[in-house]
């Protein structure tokens, strides 16, 4: 798995997941339940992961749709 996006904006994460899902790229969001530890104020970013072989394509899709992906 490779990180392609790190953000604390739930709308951006949802949009990114929808974009990748439409292209049949499976994604997994890490750190979703960290809000319990931070007190639900949204300061800790969540990470979106995809399979390493799909990372290049996923980054291109995000970039084409105005989302700045994480770089290694």
UniProtKB/TrEMBL annotation:
Highest taxon, organism lineage: Bacteria
InterPro entries reported for this sequence: DUF2007, N-reg_PII-like_a/b
Limits of the DUF2007 domain: 1-64
Protein name per UniProt: DUF2007 domain-containing protein
Source species: Pontivivens ytuae
């Amino acid at each position: 798995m490779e990180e392609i996006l790190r953000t604390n904006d739930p709308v951006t994460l949802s949009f990114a997941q929808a974009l990748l899902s439409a292209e049949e790229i499976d994604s997994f969001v890490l750190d979703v339940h960290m809000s319990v530890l931070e007190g639900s104020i949204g300061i800790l970013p969540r990470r979106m992961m995809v399979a390493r072989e799909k990372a290049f394509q996923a980054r291109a899709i995000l970039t084409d749709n105005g989302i700045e992906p994480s770089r290694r």
